[in-house]
Amino acid sequence: MMYKPFSPPQKLAMSWWSQPKYRSYDAIICDGAVRSGKTLSMSIGFISWAMTHFQGGSFALCGKTITSLKRNVMNPLLTMLGQLGFTCLERVSKNYTDITLAGVTNRFYLFGGADERSAGLIQGMTLCGVLLDEVVLMPRSFVEQALARCSVTGSKLWFNCNPSHPGHWFYREWIQKAAQKHALYVHFTMDDNPSLSLQVRRRYTRMYSGAFYDRFVLGKWTAADGLVYPMFSEKRHMIAPESIPTCDKYWISCDYGTVNPSSFGLWGHCDGTYYRIREYYYDARTEGQRRTDEEHYAALVQLADGYPIACVVADPSAASFLACIRSHGQFRAIPADNDVGAGIQQVSRLLLQDKLRFSAECRDLRREFGLYCWNDSLQNDAPKKENDHAMDDMRYFVRTIACRRQAEDFFAVSAARR
Fold it and tell me: What is the reported pTM?
């Protein structure tokens, strides 16, 4: 693996603990743009500090999930440490790695902070230090439990993240109070990653818009306001039904409601682009009559007529409707991934990349695009719970099917190139 010289912020993230000006700090916080090199430089610094100051110590590396932590932090880190002469003994089943250099050995545990229940996983440990990768994605209870475990004399806290909403607890309690917390704050931009080419930087500027552009490209803590998908354009994204090509695979996505509207979308894939071919939208309030699960299922069958449906992706809270679909045995039904924030980011990216197209017949989806807004009264990123039913079924499809297929295609290509 080839590395370019590190930038000044990267060098500081790696060596602050050894510099007389900064080594008395209790913590370091690195935030800023995506792909700015903060994760790699910080993880190098974390291991270097641990191996310099402790023998036989226990440390924690934390991410939203252990899978993402291994992919984003541990795999590139262990590859590099091996090249530098470290011995790394992984205990995969127990989620820790023993790292040895020049007779010094320390143990590094891996933890996932996915939800409030995760705090119990780390409770009771005694740690010499902790690194929290993408700390804004973890619940406060988990983060504070991890910090409370660092009771060994000389222990230090290491945080990194991309910016989020300025009302986020981590921004208010740590970044704005960095001096009070005796923490070194280092801000990164894409220019701070020398290995990132100009071509790649330009690609990232095209991938985001609105608040996500401000956060992930400019590295700002910005509130989301206005339309959720300001990049949507009828002229750019809506096409005549006869212009939709023959697709190689088809799916249906469902946002199910009894009093609230139900919205189903029929999707197809062709040459890397996903097409919403037609839709079913039923608003019980407008129609003055509710429909049963069986009536909605009949509409689903009609929507699918003539298409080989790979699966139906439905609102995970619609247990009765999922059971109804399965009871008929015609379609494979799976609950959707309902991570709202991640789903909105992925829909935004596909819209910007022109990977989503919609038939002009999808009138309710087109209407909701112009009404779907952020709730600026909340202290976090959340859209208003109105005019969101076609938006939700689209997000279910993108999050559960489209982006998962893209990831699988990427790894298949990567494996083939080895």
Answer: 0.69
